[in-house]
Amino acid sequence: MTRQLLKGKKGIIFGALDDQSIAWKVAERCKDAGAQITLTNAPVALRMGKIQELGARLNAEIIPADATNLEELEQLFQKSMQVLDGKIDFVLHSIGMSVNVRKQKPYTDLNYDWMQKSLDISAISFHKVMQTAWKLDALSNQASVLALTYIAAQRVFPDYSEMAEAKALLESFARSFGYHLGSQKKIRVNTISQSPTRTTAGAGIKGFDTFFDYADKMSPLGNADALSCADFCTVMFSDLSRMITMQNLYHDGGFSSMGMNPSLLNES
Ligand SMILES: NC(=O)c1ccc[n+]([C@@H]2O[C@H](COP(=O)([O-])OP(=O)(O)OC[C@H]3O[C@@H](n4cnc5c(N)ncnc54)[C@H](O)[C@@H]3O)[C@@H](O)[C@H]2O)c1
Fold first, then answer.
1. Which of 12, 13, 14, 17 to mutate to test the pocket of ligand 1 (most atoms within 8 A of CB)?
2. Domain 10-265: which topology?
């Protein structure tokens, strides 16, 4: 990246599991753009994933935190501010998991204990992250916060199951915190609604390949990949996007504005 868009900025990146993860690419791009970062993931993911390799290469401290655990989140922010030597200028929430999807429960027969867990991990964790940052006054003036979401929050994609409701809740939390943090310290909070992307979380959705191909053909620009998502996140963390807040931003090659693409009809 030629412009050091994030020079001098300090960020926390949640959710890099392996080199397919969207957060992995965002971490690389942010570093390229001149930022200093800490990386975090759930303790179990640290054992199973490859985040250590990323941390070593980017010279980024890895701080374990289950994003549903308030104590661990508090330690994460405290430690990040210590390691990065100051308040946090940007945060990426790139976390999602549905127990019912994982266990292939049909939408009309969901297990509600599992649903609670899915909502906690995929949506309420965002509120917990923001509330922790608020209480510790950990974010700098004009900081930028992003969470990743999917268009199933607005439209029905049956196999996305309870994750649709999780994403709707996540987007709503982002808007509400956008008000509170914007009024308090001009901090921006947005969600990015990303195209289907081949990652561990993506592959967990039934029929993902069909889903992926359909969106790719429907979108005039094709599906947005993880790298282009990382570029967009970099811009959103930079001062160039300083007046954008409380938005759900579609990063999907135009998919969200399409009704039908004749090239799909011509296939049958
Ligand atoms: N892949 C897609 O098609 C797609 C499309 C739109 C949006 N998204 C969203 O992008 C985000 C990143 O997903 P991804 O596709 O890069 O997959 P991924 O599997 O690489 O990332 C999901 C991450 O969530 C982490 N996580 C799970 N439980 C956690 C917990 N309790 N505490 C902390 N972290 C936890 C996992 O360890 C993993 O790193 C998710 O919010 C996902 O819903 C993905």
1. 17
2. Rossmann fold (3.40.50)
Q: Which atom of ligand 1 is nearest to the CA of 18?
A: 20
Which residue from 173, 187, 192, 194 is spatially nearest to 243, judged by alpha carbons?
187
Please give the C-alpha separations between residue 176 and each of 68, 143, 150, 169, in angstroms, as whole numbers: 19, 16, 18, 11
Helix, strand, or coil (residue 218):
helix
Q: Which residues have a Cβ under 8 Å from the Cβ of 251 and sit 6 or more positions away? A: 192, 193, 194, 195, 224, 228, 229, 232
Residue 6 in contact with residue 35, Cβ under 8 Å?
A: yes
Residue 245, SS3 per DSSP: coil
Are 72 and 64 a contacting pair, CB within 8 Å?
Answer: yes
Tokens read off for 91: 């945060």
pLDDT tens column, 121-161: 999 999 999 999 999 999 999 999 999 999 999 999 999 99
- Cα–Cα–Cα angle for 102, 149, 145, rounded to 5 degrees: 125
| 8 Å CB contact between 12 and 38 | yes
Which ligand 1 atom is at minimum distance from the Cα of 93? 41
pLDDT in tens, 133-142: 999 999 999 9
Give residue 53's identity as a one-letter amino acid code: E
Rounded Cα gap, residues 41 and 62, in angstroms = 8
Residue 66 tokens read as 């289950």
